[in-house]
Amino acid sequence: MAVVHTSEIKLTVGLDENRVPEELKWSAQDGGINEEDAKAMMLSVWDSKHRESLKIDLWTKDMPVDEMKIFFHQTLMTMADTFMKATQDEKMTATMKDFCDYFAEKLELDKM
Description:
There is one protein chain. By secondary structure, the chain is an alpha+beta fold. Helices cover about 35% and strands about 35% of the residues.
């Protein structure tokens, strides 16, 4: 199949004099997102040639630790959902979600 449409997702990182992120902005024109602020991001891409995951993890220096914990929990939950959609492996998805529950319990996220 030939590519009939392309879509661009843009990330802009504003750095301070020490190259520490001050601001993160993202745009996804097809999704109606234009220069929206963010405090943290995680991006993973699969390099099929080398059979490895490449990643970029960034957060602004004013990202609160309590919000980072929630961000991680929600990201882990989303990864479990994505794993299920990609593999249809219900048993491992349930195991991943059990870990997410454990993670939230240990961080006392329900008290935040």
